[in-house]
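In the laboratory, one determines a bound structure by crystallizing the protein with its ligand and collecting diffraction data. In a computational setting the workflow is compressed into a single prediction: the sequence and the ligand go in, and a structural description comes out. We illustrate the idea with (2S)-2-hydroxybutanedioic acid.
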Amino acid sequence: MWKWILVVAVAAAITTPATAQSPIVIKFSHVVANDTPKGKGALKFKELAEKYTSGKVRVEVYPNSSLYKDKEEIEALQLGSVQMLAPSTAKFAPLGAKEFEALDLPWLFKDDDTYAKAMKGPVGKWLFQKLEAKGITGLAYWDNGFHMTSANRPLLTPADFQGLKVRISGSKIADRYFRDAGAIPQIMAFSEVYQALQTGVVDSCENTPSNYLTQKFYEVQKDITVSYHAHLQYAVIVNSKFWDGLPADVRGQLQKAMDDATDYTNSIAKKENEDALAEIKKSGKTTLHYLTPEQKTAWQEAMRPTYKWAKGRVGGEILDLISKELNVKTN
Ligand code: LMR
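The predicted complex, in structure-token form:
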């Protein structure tokens, strides 16, 4: 009997240190393909996090909704079933942070630089503060460029939107600007869009070239308008309890990995989308359309009421901040 107790005690002594050394696992779930700015960013974070922590952390990346779809992944983060996500900021209302939807206002960012400056400055910081009370920590913003719009007919004037069923990703601001143009928007998980377009459940969608290419949306949409009417960005977020509970040195190494992965992702986003657009064009499976200045103005005028409406949705504070930072009128 004593002999057995000794054997068990020795075995425990041998295995305990090994257990204590087992890596901290970060499950990083997202909904896009690996071959996109976000997909590449997640893999870069994995590489650097494992390197900087000398293997104390293992990052498991689950792309393409392979672990969770849009809504589920937000719930999973709150429950602690995953530790890290990078959802589009258009999907933050279920987190209790609908202020993020202000970023979806049409033609808000003049260009890539304006967008980048806003997110690095007070606008990005203010929004991350909103997450704190929800038990979520915002680590970084990742860029994915501007949205195009598509259908099986050219979308050139607001009249072309009449009665069009458009898939949107979650933002009520997007819902509003498509309604203002005469369309009928519908929220749908990203993983379901291809089939919904193919079977006619919806007629239309908006997204960036990298998503059109990797999800093959361009194969089931005859006409794409390179409208670049709104911006798509992600916030990389973690469960605060998990993040704050990490050993301080590991958290510091992970933050550095995130900062470096962010620089990388934001440096490739523009080119990735340009290359994706060129590939879509080369495929010959769809026709690309570009708005004339007059057409663009007509879209902007049709969607302008969204700005007034937005105040009731996202509040005046974020709109005032954006207006000050970007030097634009938000009402
Ligand atoms: C979408 O649902 O259209 C996008 O948010 C997907 C993504 O993460 O880029």
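The chain has a mean pLDDT of 94. Keep in mind that any predicted model is a hypothesis to be tested, not a measurement.
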